Structure formats: structure tokens, C-alpha cells
Amino acid sequence: MDKLNHVIEAQQFTPERLSDIFAVAREMEQVVRHYGSNILNRRLMATLFYEPSTRTRLSFEAAMKRLGGEVITTENAREFSSAAKGETLEDTVRIVEGYADVIVIRHFESGAARRAASVARVPIINAGDGPGQHPTQSLLDVYTIQKEVGRLDGITVAMVGDLANGRTARSLAYLLAKYKDVKFYFVAPEVVRMKDDIKEYLHRHGVFFAEEEDLFKVAAMADVIYQTRIQKERFGDRTADYENARGKYIIDRELLQVMKERAVIMHPLPRVDEIHPEVDTDPRAAYFRQAHNGLYIRMALLKMVLNA
Ligand code: NCD
User: Which residue(s) pair with 251 in the sheet?
Assistant: First the structure.
């Protein structure tokens, strides 16, 4: 298989590439159990984050260090990097690639990672580009589904919450569309329904999807409930829209009652109030395990893009 170069969007992965990444991620679980390795010794990763993050940035940094590599980082790059002086992303990338062997970027504009990759001579990894995509999250999501549900073909997935602005749901839809007989139910408040680009993609690839209003009805059929946060930061001054969307679909003990016994609840996190904490102790609550899988997936990606 060709070398994995940039990681920009979920559609770029072939099923073969996906099973390759998951196989390396499984190896990485063993590596972490043995306190890491030195395969990325003397390699340097730069993280350029123009939007807030906890899990994504820390798990990338932990991944690099667990493999013996080094990290340079700019958090809050929108305010504290030269972007604040008016430097373009392209120029910033041309500079940072002189310092680091791989660049992980989170940006506030859709398409930013692709723009960065178009000028970069080192691998670019998209850690979220505005309301665009979050491909490394969807890789860890699919890895989690495989581990928790035991299969990817033939599953029924309910995507819930902010499907218009939630880049994780968008990337996950693209990625799961690559497996056989996956069925999607989209359950979103009116103002944040799944966008046409995804629906057209699913349609073109013959993937079943339906938009539903009743979360209880969908929860009874789902193998995976993928809950998401209403993305407040994307509403600007539309506070009434935000308030209407928020609180519409909450996962609580009542919903657990109708779910299948072997189903799982996932969430990219952070959550606000869309999953009640009373759900956390249910064995089907997979979201914390899901976040931990991010470490293995990101170790695998770094190993692969750096050809180690
Ligand atoms: C998500 C994101 O940043 O898109 N968080 C994450 O990376 N796990 C989801 C969110 O912010 O709601």
C-alpha cells in the first residue's frame, strides 16, 4: 500500500487502509501497555491549534511522546501566533515545516487543512477544520465501534444533536459509508439538520439514511447512538436558535430503557447536558473508553505518516 501522507478528510480512506490503521492501533495498545517505544526517536511534531481542544491535542502529544518523539506546540494560535498579526495559514505552514516533521492543525475554517496540505512538504493532519471535518476523531470512533459492537457491517447508527456543525458526525458518516449495509438515522433539531453534502454522498453510494424526530423510536433500533454537542460557537449571534436546539435531545435513564442490551452510546466529548451523568455508569456508556482509543489511533497515524 502507498505511504499514508496527509490526513485531511474521512473520504480519503479505502477500506484496506482503514483495516491497516486499526491493525497498527491494536499494536499500539500493546506498546502503551509496555510504557511506549522509541520508534519516533528524534522526530518532532508541531501542533498548531487555532480553536480550543483538550482530548485531541493532549492525545496527539501523548501519542508522539509514547513513541519517543518530541512536541512543539502553539495553543490558542488565533490569538497568540503570528495569525494575530495577519500571517496566512499557508505562510505559517511554510515556516513550521522547517522546524517539524509532521504538523497537526486545528483551525476555525472549513477547508483549512486542505489548504495547509497544498503547500506543505511534511505530512499535515487535520485535527478539526471549523464545521468541516475531524477525520482522526472518526477513525477512533470507528475503531471504538468495532471494539464495542464487534462488527461494522450491518450496523444501525443513530446520529443525534448538531449534525450541521458537528464535524465529528460529518466525518463519521463519510467513514461508516464505506462499510456494508450500514443504516443511518439522523435525529437533529430543525436548525442543525445534516447538510446536503453528506446526504448526497450517502445517496450516491447507496447508503440508507432517514431523518427522524423521535429519539425513542430510533434508540430502540440502534446499535450505536452517537450523541453530539450543540456547537454553540458556530451560532454567532443566533442565540435563540442555539437555545431552541439545546435541550431537545437528551440521553437519560428513560432512554436507556428502550435501547438494545448490546448497543453503545458514544460522544466525541466534551458534553454539556446532552447526556445525563446518570447514564455514565451504564455498561453501554462507551464515551470515556472511546476517548481513550484516540491515543492508539493517533499513535498509529503518526507512525504511518512518519514511515516508522
Ligand atoms: C469535538 C470537536 O472538537 O469537534 N471534540 C473533539 O475533538 N473530541 C466535538 C465538540 O467540540 O463538540
Answer: 275
CA distance 192 to 241: 9
Interval 144-153 mean pLDDT? 98
Q: What pLDDT, on a 0 to 100 scale, did the predictor assign at position 1?
A: 74
CA of 107 to the centre of ligand 1 (A): 12
Between CA 244 and CA 203 the distance in angstroms is 29
The pLDDT of residue 86 is above 90:
no
Please say if 106 is a catalytic residue: yes
Query: In Å, how far are 19, 197, 205, 240 from 191, measured between CA atoms?
Result: 36, 16, 26, 11
- Mean pLDDT over residues 67-76, rounded? 93
Domain boundaries, the chain: 10-133+294-305, 135-291
Homologous superfamily in CATH for domain 135-291:
Aspartate/ornithine carbamoyltransferase (3.40.50.1370)
Q: What is the mean pLDDT of residues 250-258?
A: 98
Q: How far apart (Å, rounded) are the C-alpha atoms in residues 134 and 102?
A: 17
Q: Given a cut of 90, is residue 233 above it in pLDDT?
A: yes
CB of 128 shorter than 6 A to ligand 1: yes
Q: Ligand 1 centre and the CA of 299: distance in Å?
A: 19
Decide: 59 in ligand 1 pocket, CB within 6 A.
no
Q: CB of 138 closer than 6 A to ligand 1?
A: no
Q: If you classify domain 10-133+294-305 with CATH, what class do you get?
A: alpha beta
CA of 110 relative to ligand 1 center, distance in Å: 14
State residue 227's pLDDT score.
Answer: 98
